[in-house]
Amino acid sequence: MRTWARELESYTHDYVRRGGKQNRRKQVSLIVNFLEFTDALEGLTSLHRLGKRHVITFWKAHRDLPEKSAYDYWLGFCQLWIWLGKSEKPPRPHKMIAPSEEPGTN
Q: Which of 10-14, 44-48, 75-79 has the lowest mean pLDDT?
């Protein structure tokens, strides 16, 4: 088993047991997808070595994600950041950063 997978298991074991179980399992699966992507690209050794650059690389590779899916991934990243004790929020996908303009306003 990979090192990051063992580290993740210590966080997710209790997390999945409480709250909305179906939603939490989905969030964990999205986090695992992100970690597998990062591991395949850069050879991830530890969760604590994750940073904004990894998330930005993920967003660049997945520009075609629907807005809802991107938001779900971002919520998963937020939970991962909480587990890792990072003080800032992870980078949002580009679609969520741009303010939506209402038609007819100048």
A: 10-14
